[in-house]
Fold this protein.
Amino acid sequence: MAVPAPAPPPFDLKNIQGDILAGSLPKRTETFLFFTIDQSHVKDFRAQLAQLVPLITTTAQVVKNRTDIIQSKEDAAAKKTPQPLLKMVGVNISFSHKGLAVLGIKDEIGDSAFDQGMLNDASNLGDAGTGTGPDFKPNWVPAFKHDIHGVILVAGDCHATIDHKLGEIKRIFKVGSHNASIHDVKEIRGDVRPDKEKGHEHFGFLDGVSQPAVTGVEKTTFPGQDFVPQGTILLGREGDKPSPIPPATTPVTRPAWALDGSFLTFRYLFQLVPEFDNFLKANPIDGVLPRELGSELLGARMVGRWKSGAPIDLFPTADNPDAGGDPQKNDNFDFAFTNPDDATTQTRCPFAAHIRKTYPRNDLEGPPFNLDIDNRRIIRAGIPFGPEVTDDERKRGKTEHGRGLLFVCYQSNIEDGFQFIQKSWANTPSFPPKGNPIGSLQSGFDPIIGQGPSPRSVIGMNPQAQDASLSLPAEWVLPRGGEYFFSPSLPTLKGVFAQVEGTHANGHGEL
């Protein structure tokens, strides 16, 4: 008689790294330190990692920090004074598959995308490059074309706070010395955009809307927000479904040390803002709003939201900034319509709109499919990088300075999460499956992040000519690097990764 696997220990936010859940590390600015482990100093690294662990910010600490921020805001409002910027710093660490191998941790963790790494997955994701098959070389910056063993995230209230903490971390690992245990591959700094653009990405649209709520973390949901099982984001918890490792047909069992960890997807995304703005200006939607607002409407229909965050499914012809910034209103829709005819039209929201492509809601959850898509949900925790568009760039309509998004998302399964969303949804012109017969309609690529042969095209952008095709002459979001990482729990960092003596993690049991 088979012996059932033991139940995992009780869920505890103190065991989980802080960028994964509860709204991620509070950040006005964030630095990513990508590193390799010196293979002649692996034992030193594991000993020094034990010194880093007390600096790691947990989800429990993030919950407290965010409570303090809310209280500070309320206190300032009561006193009618500006809200002070609280000094905060958060630290997390994650490892690539190659990084785990250097540490001698070779258990099969149950995700082939993680195992192969993003460099080998770039062609599959649609990234531009040269060559084919094993000779494919993506158009990435050099740093991401070489081995990266891990990344340290340092987020905080200002550059000085982060620089001080980053210096402390580098001293732990003796970075820059002859006996350094890690070597700096690349450092990238992101910053929240200034003033009224706070919370918006560089194209100008409110970001971070429509995150799932995780059972046992959030107590309530906003209208339109769904709970997902803990295992959607965390390995080893209820709802975690490891993928089979080819050619196997049954899921693998997670190693015990993977409990409460999460896979981190990082993408170094450059945005061509002046070029994107010029495209909108050159292709205004006529006949719905005054012509000067037609370009704004096109942008909203390409994204699925107005720049304020207001969804066009609720506000199809005019922005509603109050609703856009209100979590009680900005996610309260699901592409389900009381009028049956609406489900086959794009009057309100194009099928190819970015937010519909990447989270189709009732297009799959409702009839005729009635699918559970919890396993496709991810938690995003990225931050913009680069300067604001200059007057010269705006005048010339050409990008001169690098800017974009340091995209970060967490999931318990990369193949079901990020990789599937990018490849099978954003990059697939026939998704979502619309038309008669089902799937016959080519709605087009996700106009924001969809990648494919040039020129890409979409339909449905003009609500009064929904079958008209709009050619997209360029890709305005350009991947220039990335990697898949694993963010271990605090107990695993302490008891397995920072282990100095004894065996490595192989044979430490299964979940």
In short: Residues 502-507 have pLDDT under 50 and may be disordered. The two ends are 18 Å apart (CA to CA). The first strand starts at residue 29 and ends at 37.
